[in-house]
Structures are given as structure tokens and as C-alpha cells.
Amino acid sequence: MATDPSIRFRNKCAIVGVGHSRLGRVPGASALDLQLEAIKNAIVDSGVKASEIDGLLCRGPQDVYCNHQLVGARLGVNARFSTGVDSGGASQTLSVAFAVMAIEAGMAETVVVGFGGDSWSATHASEEARLANDTHAGKRPKEFGIEFGFTGAVAAHALGAQRHMDLYGTTRDHFAEIALVCRENALRNPDAQMKKPLTRENYHAANMIAAPFGVFDCSLRSDGAGAVIITSTERARDLRQRPVMIKGFGSHNNTRGWFADDNMVHTAAGPSGAAAYRMAGLGPRDIDIAQIYDCFTYMVLTEIEDYGFCKKGEGGAFVASGALRRDGALPCNTAGGLLSEAHVDGMLHICEAARQLRGVYPPDRQVKDAEIALVSGHGGNQVCHATLILGNA
Amino acid sequence: MDNSRVTPKRPLPVPPPESLPFWQAAHQRRLTFPRCDACGKSWFPPANLCPHCLSDGFHWEEACGRGKVFSFVVVHRVYHGYFANKVPYTVAVVELDEGPRILSNIVGVDPQKVHCNMAVQVAFDEAGPDMTLPLFAPVEAVRKS
Ligand SMILES: [Zn+2]
């Protein structure tokens, strides 16, 4: 049998620095400010010098042109490899994959992967700003959306949730469990945006936004940024932090569209995860913790099915068993996720996985014996996906 | 007082060139979709290349107007003033009998009663002097009216 060509990338590179910025409501700070704050924290954490950075895979808000170049200017470096990825919430996990490929291709040695956003400030500066954001106002042609009162990501994902409910008997109580897990984890995270406990009663009493989604099925609007520093495993051994090995990555994109085939319930996480498992030589049973892209509660439920943690259609029963809790079979979104920590386009999922694998959190935050983590990224009109499998050895 | 501020007009599509024939037909109360002259398959939303064989020869076929709900959501939040007195309303992906899936509203039925696979039929709604939107209603509701 031919060897899978992706195996050459297994354990070749490592995350050696992790940082994040102030999170939540940070009025007066631009997305770029916050991104530099996170990158600086990651650099200090890693012990590398800024002048050693020769790769930038840094993304900003959708309307910022060539964000990575602006990052380079503020870091004061010319980078051999510098660009941004355009896959929405899958961009950050995919950027880590590109960082490894660039390092292995000899195009860079030390790469920063970062994202900074200002989606709280951008939508709360004024009522006009909120409306413009909600309705995607702009000069480009648009159809099959606002004329039917269909706007933005909430309703699009809710279509998938509804179909899953109709096909498999999934209930809002299952979605509630996911919201509760994230909130409980956020309460242990002093930097998380959400500070108040959430009960099942609160969840069910909340206003509906686009049924089956209510307020607590939807992720946050956040200002904030995260960043990681990636270098070769060889070089990582000489640095300050315990290296977090990049064992596998994969991606898949249901680019035929969210409405096509049965992509709303069989997401791109399936083939993306399969590719990452192949590269890592691991499977779902080997995963100790998962940081799952949770733009909406339903996405966690369908992704854990697609990743093989349970069968398709059994996600409801799986989450109801308590599997995602800190003491469950698959502790999930251990810093609170997009639902309760902050929505920084999944960058903080990568940061949290790396920190858990270092194993140096205080006992109330550290998941015991976390050796292998899976990180997912999802976005790009609901169809782009990328997966990372990280390990502490 | 400026009435337009009280009840904003329904937001209308701003179609790209490849979709204009669809909207022009809809304004004449015909529901159409592209079908490939080379391979015979259909697609939606409109595009000038067949996604099945990349042929650029296609024609606009008139749909029978019937289909079923593929999935749906019930929108409660007001994102645009026009919908302020319409919430909660139903947005659905409708799979036409001919295959294409189209986004629209389900009207003429309590949103609580909509379900996946519900049989629906097009119900045109004139939204402006140059624009008619293809909405859908349950087949029974269309028969009664
Ligand atoms: Zn064709």
C-alpha cells in the first residue's frame, strides 16, 4: 500500500508561542491594534525575537485590505512569506496548515498566525453600523436574501439545525447542552467575555432569533485577537516553551454550496477530519480534548458527528450524555468557545488547545491528561472547513 | 410625516446580469431555471456555465411551480424595518419538482405548521413596479384560494 503523502508533515512543526489580546468589548481599539497586542504576547511567550519572524499568515476583518502587510509594518519586519487566507472561520486553522507547508518548503522559518477582529465595536458604534452589518449592505449585486428577510449567518445555519432536527429527532435541549458547556468553561476563564452563569431555563426562556435558534444558540460579537508562533520542531526544542506538535491537518470545502446535496447536515468537517486523522495516524478515539468551531450550537453537534466521535444523527444523545463536559469523554471548548469566551474567528480555539497541551494551567482550568487535541475551523458561507490535530509529544 | 419612515418598503434584489432573465420571467409570473443544452441537467441560482459539464449553452425552463420544503427557519428578529410587522415569518429552501433549490418565503400558513418535505406551490407577490417575488404556499392553501 502506498504511503499517504501527507504523512511527511506529521510532527515537523510546532506551536512555540501563544498570545491573545483583551477580549469582548474593547471600544477605542482597532482590530489591528488588538492583533498586534496578541502577536506581541505570543512573541514574548515564545522567547523568539521579532526580527526572527519571517512568515506572516495574519487575517483581519473582511474589509481590511492586505491585513498581513499592515501587521508586518507594525512588527517592523520584512517577511519572506506573507499573506492572508480567505475561508472565513476556517482561515485560522488553515493558516496553521499553510505555515507548516511554508516552513517545510523552506519559504520561512518562524511564522506568525494571527487574527484580529472588532465585530463588537463595528456593530455597536451606531445603529447604522449595526444595520449595515446585519443586512450586508453594499453595492454588489445581491439576491435570494434580504428580499425574503433572510440575512446573515444565523438563519443560514438555522436551516441546517432544522433539517437535522427533522431527520434525526435532535432537539433544542441538545443545543442547550452545548451552550451550557461553553458558558461553564467561560466562567473559569477570567478573560472570557461572558461572566454570568447560564441555566437551561435561561436558555429556553430567551428570545428566538431565527428558530430553531434563540439568543443562546448564537455566538458573540467580540473585539479581540489571538496569535500563535510556529517553527520547525527541531528549532522548537531550543525555545522556552514545551513545543505543541502539529501532528495532522486537513481541509475540505463543500464549495458546491450549503444548499447543495446534504451539506447542511453532512458538513465538510467529515473529509477534513479524515485527512487530518490520516496525517496524524490517529482517530477519534485518540482525541482527549476538542475545540470545535461553535459559531452556533448546532455546528458543534453536527461537527462531532462528522469527526466520528459518534454516528451521524446521534449527536443529540452524545451531548446529552455529558460527553462535552470537563469530566466527559470529550471535553469541548474548554475556554468557552465562540459562544461564551469571544468570537475571534476560531483563533482562540487554537490558542486554547495549545495551552491545554502544555499542561500548565491552574487545576481548575487544566483538563487532566490532555495529550491530543482536535481543533476545527468552519466558515466561508458555511462550507469551508479545516482541522488541526495537536499533541504534547 | 414621511410615511416611508414608518413602513419601509420591502427590500428588493439587486440581481447580477446572469440572473436578470429569472427576475424578468418572475415579473411575468413564470418560475424559471437554467437547464443545460449539452447534458440536460439544471442548476440554481442562475449562472452562465453549467456546473455539471461547463457548457455555456443552456435555456430557461419554466418550472411547474410545485416543490417541497427542504429546510426552513422562522425569523423572529427584525433585521429590516419592512419585516417589523411581519415577524415571525418563514424562510425556506424549496426543492422544486424539477430539482433546483431556491430560497424564498413560505406564506399562507402558520410558521409553526411548516415542516421539512411539506408540499408547496409558487405564489407570486408583486413587490414593486418592476419586481415580482416568487413566494411559496402549502399546496392546500393555494387550492383553497
Ligand atoms: Zn451541462
List keywords for this structure.
heterodimer; A: alpha/beta; Peroxisomal Thiolase, Chain A, domain 1; 2 domains; two-stranded antiparallel sheet; globular; B: 145 residues; mainly beta; 7 strands; binds zinc ion
Brief overview, please?
The complex is a heterodimer of chains A (393) and B (145). Chain A is α/β, with parallel strands linked by helices and 393 residues long.
CATH architecture field of the largest domain in chain A = 3-Layer(aba) Sandwich
Give the beta-strand count of chain B.
7
Mean pLDDT of chain B: 93
Helix run count of chain B: 3
The CATH homologous superfamily of the largest domain in chain A is termed Thiolase/Chalcone synthase
| Strand order across the largest sheet of chain B | 5-4-3-6-7
- Uncertain runs of chain B are none
Radius of gyration of chain B: 16 Å
CATH topology of the largest domain in chain A: Peroxisomal Thiolase, Chain A, domain 1
Distance between the termini of chain B: 37 Å
Tally the helices of chain A: 14
What gross morphology of chain A would you assign? Answer: globular
Estimate nothing, just give the exact number of structural domains of chain A: 2
Helix content of chain B: 10-25%
Mean pLDDT of chain A: 95
Strand content of chain A: 15-25%
How much strand of chain B?
Answer: 35-45%
**Computed structural class of chain B:** mainly beta
Low-pLDDT regions of chain A:
none
Overall number of domains of chain B: 1
